[in-house]
Structures are given as structure tokens and as C-alpha cells.
Amino acid sequence: MRSSRTSANKSMPPVLGPAAASRLAAPWAFLNYEPTIPVDLLLERGVGLVRYVRQECHRGHGASSSPGRAIKDGARNVMHVRVAADLHGVSISRVLRTLAGPTATSFDDFFDRLLGDKLEGMTLHRNACADVHGRPWVDPSRVPPRMASMGSLYYDDSSLFKKVTRELVYLDYMHIHSDKRSITRVFKSVDSDDPTTPHKKHVERHKHILFGYCIDDFRHLEDRNDHDDDDDDDKSSVRVTFYGEYAMAPEPCRLGREAKHFLEKLGTSVQLLQRMLACHPPKLSASHITQ
């Protein structure tokens, strides 16, 4: 029996973990962005990022780690940060509006709060909203279930000894899942050196960074059946998970340290979100969230 069990175990395929990050392949690389790239390709790339970020967000539930601290994973060739918070008595609509502004489609205000007076500017280069089939969204009164934007932000990252402005050029994709109980928002750096706008001073660009937020309503099933109002805060419980990672270069370098600091700063956004929600901002009607 012992030998047969051993041989049976040998015949079973090994359990595969996450693939090692490659700076030449998706989702870790976005090397070929052009302003004329079709919207459907941006949406397709966004869907792939959502799938990956949700997998990593959920992989961390119950895992032991240092919340908000960047962790180096040599086997996967990434440095990652994962932070989660369970928010009770808060609806998914309120979380979405707090993260993404009154229209639930912008991140400007949130980045402004996160980076404070270090933020030097943000630019929206392109924006496209779509329904679940990828067709153009035509109802401005409702939050689109799919949204892809191209943007850039600049912030002061100077130290005592060096003046530095850093830039992140990114794809921003929002995905409202079909059950309307989960929303994922992902950001992926553009990893080329092509300038977006002319600069009068030297700007260093972040590359091979991706991050995102999974917002999940985890009310008990019986509560969902009995109370179908998404905006009923008293009956709501929402888990917000931030996941960010940097695909490491073959050799350790200064850019890795800068990416680590940036990811850890982004990780503090979950605590910032909790503080903002405590201020009781106006609610976004549940009817605005559509499939």
C-alpha cells in the first residue's frame, strides 16, 4: 500500500502557483501603447488586469504578511503590497463614490488626497465607457459597467539631497461585475519612454507597476435576499482590498527602491479611504450602478 500510494502521488501533476513576472509580457508589461489603439483592445487588456488583480487580492485573504509593507517575492520576480479592510455599515455605492468622485468614474480627487501637496498635476488623455458587450455607453446619468482611460500624474518625490519629479502614465480600467456586488478598478503603467506632454524639467517615469482595488459586498446570502437595497448602509459590509506590484529588473537598482516607496504609499490609500468614509459623504444611488 505504501509503494502504491507513493507511485500514485508521483503520477499526480504538481500544483502550480502564480507565474513568474516577465517585463516583456502581460500583465506586467505595457510596451506598445499608441494614442490610436482601438478602444476594444484597451478594454480587453483591462479585463486581463482585472482577472489578475482579483486573483492576487483574494489570494492574500488569510495570508500572513506585513500590511502595507512591500514584500519581495524572488520566486515570482515581483515586489508586492497587499492591504485589506472590512468596512461594516458602509454600502458598496458609498465606497465607489468616495474612491471615484461624484460620477464614480474619476480618481483625481482621491489621488489628490493621497499625494497631497506633492501632486503636481494629472492629465486625462483618453476616456471610453462601454456596456458589458464593449459597445459605447450612451447614458451619462448612470455609471458605465466598463470604463477604460489613459492618464498621467506627476508628483514631487524630492529628498533632502535631490529634486525629483516622478511620472506615472497609466491605463485605468473599471469593471462592475455582473452580480453588482463586486467592483474592480485597476491601473497599469505604460512602460515605454514616449513622452505624453513636453516637460521643462527632468521627469523620471515609473514602469512595470500595476495596482488595483477589489471592492466586494460580503453580506450574508440571507441578508442579500431579504434586503436588496445596495445603498442600505446599515445592512452592508464591504471588503476593500488593495493589491500592487512591481515586476523587478534582472539586477537590483535604484528604480526598485523608488517603486517600493510608491507602492507602499499607494497601500496607505485603504486607511485614507476609511477616514474619508468616516466623514459620511453623500450617497450615490444604487440605481446608478448598472450591469
Automatic annotation (TrEMBL):
It comes from the Eukaryota. This is Uncharacterized protein. It comes from Aphanomyces astaci.
